[in-house]
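Lab notebook page, bench 4
Experiment: in silico fold of construct C2
Operator: M.H.
Input chain length: 241 residues
Purpose: comparison with the prior construct
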Amino acid sequence: MAYGVQMYSLRDAVAADYKQALFTVAGQGYKMVELFGGMNPDAKTIRKWADEAGLVISGTHTGAASLTAENLQQTIEDHHVLGCNLLIIPGHDLSTKEKLDAFIEQMNGVQPILEQAGIILCYHNHSHEFYPNEDGQIIYDQLLSRTSMKLELDTYWAYNAGKDPVEMMEQLKDRLCAIHLKDGFMGGEGMPLGQGTAPVKKVWQKAREMNLPMIVESETQRPDGPAETGECMKYLRSLED
């Protein structure tokens, strides 16, 4: 099995030595990385390091501000340099109808431009998208019905909101671009894979059945990011055994 990892899981190691952090996850057995936080260093340097480590850049978490008219072309060019065709909005303030309507209008405007450039626009959820916003709208339902964006289902945050992530995977099917494979407890406390109460094994089995890219995210950095992603890989190998 080929697994990816969201590099935010190793943000401590990335801050200390980005190149070494990439080599660390490659050494742990990850084949793909999902980037966060923009192109710092530049896209060309990150691509060079990833290639040297034998890693594919499967996607980026890129904020909506990078898709404004003045930034869009650079964002497209960066993704071409990275060899990456998934641009994932990691979350956004959609707490009112006005903000949600503006976001949907922006996404519906840029999606065809991105598609023409060979880039797939996606949205990554947390838990709040499944609850009513200040104006009573269920954000996730609005994104499903009013856009054709792909979705990166964060299975832990869906679970934390009282959803069954396996049922959601079946319902969403072709709308999914990938999943975040993640563990934790109800209430928002994340844990390494296999150490929380989220249905990680069932999610893993469903993702295999659906041939969905699995991107590991484990955010607590206890005792540090590399140790935590290493624990996650051990758990994944135990599932394979």
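Observations: The beta strands are 4-6, 32-36, 56-61, 86-89, 120-124, 150-154, 176-181, 183-185, 189-191, 214-216. The CA atoms of residues 127 and 161 lie 5 Å apart.
Next step: discuss at group meeting.
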